Amino acid sequence: MKKIFTVFLFVACVLVAYSANPPIYVAFHWHMHQPIYQPGESVVQSQNSNVFSYDLYEIFNSRSGPYTSWPANAVNKMLSMPNAGAQVSFSGSLIENLNVMEANGKGFKNWKDSWNSMVSKKTNLGNQRLDMVAFGYHHPLMALIDYADIRIQIQKHKAVFAQNFPGMPYSKGIFPPENAFEIHMIPALVDEGIEWVMVDNQHFDRAAKGQPWAKAGNVVEPNKADILNPNPNDWKQLNGLWAPIPISAGWGHRPHWIKYIDPSTGKEYKMIAVPTSTFFGNEDGRGGFGALNYEYTMSQLEVYNTDPNHPILVVLHHDGDNHGGGTDSYYGSNFDNFVSWINSKPDRFVCTTIQDYLEMFPPADNDFIHVEAGSWSGAGSDPEFLKWNGDPIDGYSHDRNSWSIITAAANIVKTADQINPSSQDTKAAWDFLTVGQTSCYWYWDGTEDWDSKPTKASNAAVAKAMNVVNSGNDFTPPSIYHPQREPYNPGGTEWEIVMPSDFTVWSYVYDVSGLQSVKLKYRTDKDGENSMLTSDNETYEGGEDVNDWQELPMTEKAIASKLSLQPTYKANEYSAQIKGLNNVLVDYYIEAVDNKGNMARSPISHVWVGKSTVGNDEGGSSNESFIGNYIVTPSNPSANDIITIELPENKEGAVLHWGVNEFEKPITDYLPSGSTYWNDERAARTPFTLVNGKYQVKIGPFNNSSQFVDYISFVVNYTATDSWDNNGGEDYQIVFVKSGLKQTENTRIEVYPNPVKNNIYVQSDCTVSNLQLISLQGGVLTEKYQVNYLNVEDIPIGVYLLKIKFENGAEAVKRIIKN
After folding, report:
1. Mean pLDDT (whole number) for 360-378
2. Per CATH, which fold does 749-818 belong to?
């Protein structure tokens, strides 16, 4: 009966929290960006080329408010508050584009005035009220580029800021493009003077034990190698906004230290990870105050806000120039209402800049956590960055093709930089290479020839760089694209489908002098856990916690570009398969040596090979049913079954007090006749009735696409005696079995294009009998028989499962991205 007692305790605690707990701190981050639409051209030249199907000037002028005065106007409404302000990320390419339009009379006259007017506006702690945070000049996906490239992108951004916003101090914090982060970025950020980084807090949660993973969260199961943080035991299912899975209400909304150990030297680099709030940020991006009911939604966190030295921080992060978050009403009337609201409740909610918050409430010196790799949810969130790193279709991926070309170009540019960094050709080569790393060129692939833009930029970069490379000696090591693996969860599950334990590590490797060897090094951990108290797993040297390195030669594969614009240089793919491991933690990296003897080693990656019960370590729901003496039929039900629960002995007045998953409120379609909701508006109550001499209830099926159900939680209320059976405080649960698939073996299956806009096709050696597009909640969205394609044009943007049935009885499921 712990769930019932929790209701009353929650109400009492919230009332106490209003007076006893610290206020919740609220911060804003607004992201502004436009890319260079054609490498080597200004926006005016690109518009005049008539290559695009849309008006480039309209794209900019329709966003003139966010790019000029609206953000400053919004912040100026909060000058009476001691710590209030906002963060803005403003890409270098956007500055470049706006300056070109201004100079050519295409709008944006004096566009910088409002931004520069904010230089003098300080908080009571002396920090910028409008903090224009650090960024990469050309909006690169920093997690997939290396140390030198990250630093160059930030350096270029610093330079353009100094030129256009004189007097504005460069921020101590950074919003990495697409909010995409991986810990190997830390040394480059620290060496550029960055002290804190915004990280989407779902990657806090997914790295914590007990995180209640579900398909509805739209992200594949985390790998156990990342689940290093203790269970915060503060999982909360939010109401009043789109939040498909419970979140860490307290721990996941507080900044913590993160670190990276240099694998060669053992040097520790550390910075503060500031959590951006996944679901609150998404909802604020729909239109701000009003679209998001700030008080109703955020008040659900108050009972967890018990640490006055580290109060909860909710960072509302989203595009500041798109959708509802880029409108006049967002920065205008809705923001007026926000200011009025927060001023009326100063004991409960406080608006702050992130820098002010960190100076008031720095994380404890020993408060280090691990964060999983990944981006914000609008781009898929997954730790493989598949939006920019898409899987091959019929053996080919436009995303990967571009990375192979960027890898080769990066090596040639860095070789030129090593030979003569002051050469104008070297500087021009860096300019083209950094343009080519624009993440939009991957994000918008499939239209307007975006796929060719990294090639165009790379060809221009190497044309300049080779003038320098040919004049000197090569002491530059090979370039290695950030190592990838397939499957991501070897021996575990992906979208609840069991993966093989053998896995392949692959990358692109290139050196202008040619390659002598490329090897995969791997080792196993002795106890299966990467302790955050040691660095044995993080260094090449290792230590007592790990076994010796093993090595495998990597197989080279040349994959021709399918673009009409062919690359001047292109890296080949290298891969090796690690076989025969199970239930073990594995460290691995790639080592490459060029023909001059220069050696490069990639960062060390970690993977758990084997089963991993997501969300069940040190808390969370079990994957086993607990029914006590109650009789449940069928004994192993699925979500498609009608379930009968029978009392072990006849007692009048018994009521099934139940909820779906961890006592979430079931939708009305799931309520049997005669059922009601409990006064907590979460649990349902269904009376037992006498059937053939036995007291029973029937519930189910639970297969409605609007609410995905993994299990049923229940207790029994015996109203005649006013007593409860709650399994000793642990509750009972009925876990649904998953429908197994008859998997295809030795059958070629290709699904393309993926990502998809209109029709998605299946090509296979077997004849397709049925195709179903399924939401991650389990609902069938569209279906066809005896054809090999589905039209998904009217399906919303997102991640889905394509279930394929063949005439031979085999089935397969493929993950697709709808653009």
Report:
1. 97
2. Immunoglobulin-like (2.60.40)
